[in-house]
Design a protein that fits this description.
This protein has helices spanning 153-157, 170-175, 177-183, 236-252, 278-286, 310-327, 353-360, 396-406, 412-420, 424-427, 447-450, 486-505, 542-545, 547-562; strands at 15-18, 25-29, 32-38, 44-51, 57-62, 72-78, 85-92, 109-111, 123-125, 148-151, 187-190, 194-196, 220-226, 256-261, 331-334, 368-371, 391-394, 435-438, 509-513, 585-588, 603-611, 617-625, 631-633, 642-649, 672-674, 678-686. Among the domains are: 3-102, Sandwich (Immunoglobulin-like); 574-686, Golgi alpha-mannosidase II (Immunoglobulin-like), CATH 2.60.40.1180. The longest helix has 20 residues, at 486-505. By secondary structure, the protein is of the alpha/beta class.
């Protein structure tokens, strides 16, 4: 049997003609569909047409040699209704061997995924772009005005307490938009929504023996296709429509949408994994290989995307443009972005073509670009990631600095002072918005667990409890896990407020982990990627049981919104401008203008000030005591005509520890008293006594 004639049954049922090489993928054209797929290594290529409902093969059509354009196999098939067919490709490799039916790397929809938890049988599907966006407009928000909220589409509303009509879906999340608005969120960062196989996990539950899920979704199957199981209508068209409805609704609420994209590896894994697409189409173009032809595993997932190969680079750019043009998203967070900075030999590049192209692409010009500037090899490019005046970064130095300061670690006061003003040591010349500040994210302990556990408790993951980050600079406040001790509970509540308040007072872009505002717990599990259960779902009953914390966070976001001095695009300096009453930033201690930068210091106090040409000023004073005992201090004098007012004090009783604008009491006597492990914030407001 020859390669040229192996597939091809029922080929006579369809008429074909030469196609257009670009765009790649499947594109409806008058009278049919244009199919185009790139492969430098294929000796032959077949188009496999399938019934959209059953997946039964309808025909296998060879791409005639005369239809090829360079290394692109292309043809137009007449009489094909996009709504009635699925499709795939079959490749004859250099040795003549035939591949299984492959997914189209450019497919904008994947059929066969079904409800969440069902083993998928993927097929490429054409989703016709006919969604009515109406008056949709991207919110006009500067990066420094954002408050990002990292959320998992399923986990956000899957818990019964969410009380939404469609739990665990795009529409379920849409029902919670009023909650996000009241919380003060201006940007939602969604964990991966590109199609992935949640059943692809080899571990089982030690308790029940049931298979665990690949819950987070960092295992991309379809880079252009939305996750169908997150929709109420599991068809590709249904998933597309419901994600677009969610984005449109968030935009109408003034909330931007950032997608977490996984472009560093794929679900094909190493040589033991499934052949889904890239492996058979052009393995050495899409994956980093050793000289011996083995997979370079720089991601700890089995394979590593060859991101700066021209073929793969073009695919990634097309992917990002697709999400922006088809789904109107406002930006991306790039998982393990340091992989995207590696050359075709696996080494880090000084000037990575892909990152430069993303930064300067006209379609992506208004997008927020956030890099997780690390990879699984231990590379850490925080502060040195190739930015091209466009890229921001998840600032892991901020996370570590705020945690160490709140634990009173030696040298932490001076270190966190730098983080508080936007990490100018890392991002000087790039502006404060280069730093995405966070305390917690999906990967690690929740905030409530960070104050409740000294060590990870990952036994439920089926990996012997040894997976996840070994040490997170956490402190259980005196007792491991749940406790009835009122003193431990009080300290944990205070530490959570301390962290959230400092985060929202810091220069840069703050990011909250969904549920931290209501003390969501994962019972000490700091690697809950496999936990599709109440362990990782948001329990909305906490909005009642932790209502004081929720109220506190709302007051903090409102305070940040009311004070532009906290949202400056440039790092504040310590020099006094002409005509100003205070410099943009000044540091203090128990006595004004006398900060304590000693290694043992547990007191940090800062005054942030700005004023306009008319002399109108915005002035905030923050004091943080991470020590075990109370402190008293005397803040510097506020600007003329103003008086210090107490806005937040985490040392006060919950419920009385924050005050909304207009109801902040004046500071009596000029002395600020700080309880142990507490943070207070003052604002200079007009002195009504004058």
């Amino acid at each position: 049997m020859t390669v040229a004639t192996e597939p091809g049954r029922l080929a006579q049922s369809y008429r074909t003609r030469p196609g257009q090489a670009l765009p790649l993928g499947a594109t409806p054209v008058p009278g049919g569909v244009n199919f185009s797929v790139s492969s430098r290594t294929a000796r032959g290529m077949w188009l496999v047409l399938m019934d959209a409902g059953t997946g039964a093969t309808l025909a296998e059509l060879p791409f005639p040699d005369g239809y090829r354009v360079g290394s692109v196999f292309t043809m137009t098939v007449l009489g094909v209704d996009p709504a009635l067919v699925s499709y795939g490709f079959r490749v004859a490799g250099a040795d003549g061997a035939l591949s299984p039916v492959l997914l189209d790397p450019y497919a904008n929809g994947l059929a066969g995924s079904g409800p969440w938890g069902d083993r998928p049988r993927y097929r490429s599907q054409i989703v016709v772009e006919d969604f009515d966006w109406g008056d949709d407009a991207r919110p006009d928000l500067a990066p420094e005005d954002l408050v990002i909220y990292e959320a998992h589409v399923r986990g956000f509303t899957r818990h019964p307490s969410a009380r939404v009509s469609s739990p665990g879906t795009y529409r379920g999340l849409q029902e919670k938009i009023p909650y996000l608005r009241e919380l003060g969120i201006t940007c939602v960062e969604l964990l991966p929504v590109a199609e992935f196989d949640e059943t692809d996990n080899t571990y089982t539950s030690p308790e029940s023996g049931a298979p665990l899920r690949n819950y987070w979704g960092y295992n991309t199957v379809g880079f252009f296709a939305p996750k169908a199981a997150y929709a109420t209508d599991h068809t590709p068209a249904g998933a597309s429509t419901e994600l677009k409805e969610l984005v449109r609704a968030l935009h109408r609420a003034g909330i931007k949408v950032v997608l977490d994209v996984v472009l560093n590896h794929t679900a094909e894994g190493d040589h033991r994994g499934p052949t889904l697409s890239f492996r058979a189409l052009d393995e050495s173009a899409y994956y980093l290989l050793t000289p011996e032809g083995e997979y370079r595993n720089l991601t700890a997932t089995g394979n590593t995307v060859n991101a700066n190969h021209p073929t793969t680079r073009a695919m990634i750019l097309d992917c990002l443009r697709s999400w922006v043009t088809r789904y109107h998203v406002d930006g991306f967070r790039f998982d393990m972005a340091s992989i995207l900075a590696r050359g075709t030999d696996g080494r880090l590049l000084r000037n990575p073509p892909l990152l430069e192209a993303i930064a300067h692409d006209p379609v992506l010009a208004d997008c927020l670009l956030i890099a997780e500037a690390t990879d699984a090899t231990g590379v850490d490019q925080v502060g040195t990631f190739p930015a091209y005046d466009r890229w921001s970064e998840w600032n892991g130095r901020y996370r570590d600095g705020i945690r160490r300061f709140l634990l009173g670690r030696p040298g932490s006061a001076g270190e966190f002072a730098t983080r508080l003003v936007g990490s100018p040591d890392l991002y000087r010349g790039r502006g404060t918005a280069a730093s995405v500040n966070y305390i917690t994210c999906h990967d690690g302990l929740t905030l409530a667990d960070w104050v409740s556990y000294d060590r990870r408790h990952n036994e439920a993951n089926g990996e012997g409890g040894l997976d996840g980050i070994p040490d997170e600079d956490s402190w259980n406040c005196g007792e491991e896990g749940p406790t009835d001790d009122p003193g431990v509970q009080r300290l944990r509540q205070r530490q959570q407020r301390n962290a959230l308040l400092l985060l929202l007072m810091s220069q840069g872009i703050p990011m909250l982990l969904a549920g931290d505002e209501i003390a969501r717990t994962q019972q000490g599990n700091n690697n809950a990627y496999s936990q599709d259960s109440p362990l990782s779902w948001v329990d909305w009953s906490h909005t009642d049981t932790h209502s004081d914390l929720l109220r506190f966070v709302r007051h903090c976001t409102a305070f940040r919104r009311a004070h532009p001095v906290l949202r400056r695009p440039r790092h504040p300096g310590g020099e006094l401008p002409a005509g100003w009453s205070h410099p943009p930033v000044s540091w203090h201690g128990e006595t004004a203008h006398r900060p304590d930068w000693s290694s043992s210091s547990t007191l940090l106090a800062v005054l942030l000030h700005q004023q306009d040409e008319q002399g109108r000023s915005d002035t905030v004073f923050l004091a943080a005591n991470s020590g075990d005992g109370p402190r008293s201090m005397h803040p510097p004098a506020p600007p003329p005509g103003t008086r210090w007012h107490l806005c937040m004090d985490t040392g006060a009783t919950p419920g009385s520890d924050s005050h909304p604008p207009g109801r902040q009491p004046a500071l009596d006597g000029g002395t600020l008293r700080l309880a142990d492990h507490s943070v207070a914030v003052l604002a200079a407001l007009p002195d009504d006594r004058t």
